[in-house]
Amino acid sequence: MANQAVDRVLRNDIVISVKFFIPRACAVAALTIPAFASAIAANSDGNTTIRATAGPSEIMIKTTERLAGAIDSLTWNGKEFIDSADHGRQLQSASNLNCGTPITAETFNPTEAGSRMDGAGNKSSSELLEIRAAGNELTTSSKMAFWLAPGLKSGANLAKNTTVLSDHGLKKNVKIGYKDMPNVISYDVTFTLPPGEHHTNAVFEALTGYMPPEFEQFLQFNPKSGTLEPLSDGPGEGPNPVVLSVPDGTHAMGIFAPPQPAPDTTGPTYGRFRFAEAKVVKWNCVFRTDNDSGIGPGEHTFRMFVVVGDLETVLSSMSALHSEFQDQ
Q1: CATH code matching the domain that covers 4-20+42-325, chosen among 2.70.98, 1.10.4030, 2.170.120, 2.60.40
Q2: Distance from C-alpha of 171 to C-alpha of 206, rounded to nearest angstrom
Q3: Which residues, in sequence order, are CB contacts of 33 under 8 Å at separation 6+?
């Protein structure tokens, strides 16, 4: 995701790469019908807008056909929160799987907005199947492209995929406003793993946000003290929700996910990254599934909340969300 200089530097299993040789255990026949492909008629226009009032302004979220329905823009109170470039720097979801071999970053990496080779172009290698937007709510269904095309590398590692378009599905439901918190965006995603592949490790970057460099203050929500605390640049992951803010605290964005136990799955953990040379910062929310006997085909669903506002509002919303879900 993101351009080559900015590719995710999470842990080695989430940062990504590509491999030209693919073991038979992970190969998928060309005529296999993807499990995710449904009877839904494709919608060719991914350009939508949803909006709702939040305090002194509206939160406005835009998707584009260029990004196969991934979120290209989120604005509030006169400021853009997303540093959208190429087909990696958006508000979007991705996964990275091991394909029967040791997991390496970005080597089998279905990505919502598209492929690295899509660059800054107007087309996405991902396939948008359906998109609906009305009022404050957005839903999309898509098939994700692999971040690396066959034969390309992430670092020293070749892509493991043999096609550009994967059979991995992604559905999302995004709604501005949650209960009595108009500045909280509920964000539910479902990854669908297809049959015919063999994986024992899966890293779900359930959501990531690439933000302009002016959001330079890195903070974490401490659920024990109910406060925001300074956070190092990392890069890395931790157990506490992450908040990125402009220095004076007038604009901030945080990510929160409630406990959601699932078989063989850990998380959420939260990452933060500063790419000084590329002039972009990033947060993410990550879940991992590991099963030595194999991760079967099917759905993996995760619920998150994106919190937008000034720092005081973001803190109060984080505290309210933690109080609601702490006993789960």
Answers
A1: 2.70.98
A2: 11
A3: none
* Count of C-beta atoms within a 10 Å radius of residue 37: 15
Amino acid sitting at position 39: A
DSSP symbol at 322: H
pTM equals 0.88
Q: How far apart are CA 114 and CA 247, in angstroms?
A: 32
SS3 for 115?
A: coil
Backbone angles phi, psi at 123, to 5 degrees: -125, 150
Is the peptide bond preceding residue 259 cis, with omega within 30 degrees of 0?
Answer: no
| Euclidean distance between CA atoms 189 and 191, whole angstroms | 7
- Tokens at residue 185, please? 């965006």
User: pLDDT of the chain along its 328 residues, tens only?
Assistant: 433 323 333 334 443 322 222 333 354 433 333 333 333 333 458 999 999 999 999 999 999 999 999 999 999 999 999 999 899 999 999 999 999 999 999 999 999 999 999 999 999 999 999 999 999 999 999 999 999 999 999 999 999 999 999 999 999 999 999 999 999 999 999 999 999 999 999 999 999 999 999 999 999 999 999 999 999 998 999 999 999 999 999 999 999 999 999 999 999 999 999 999 999 999 999 999 999 999 999 999 999 999 999 999 999 999 999 999 997 6
In angstroms, the Cα distances linking 279 to 120, 207, 214, 235 are: 16, 20, 9, 15
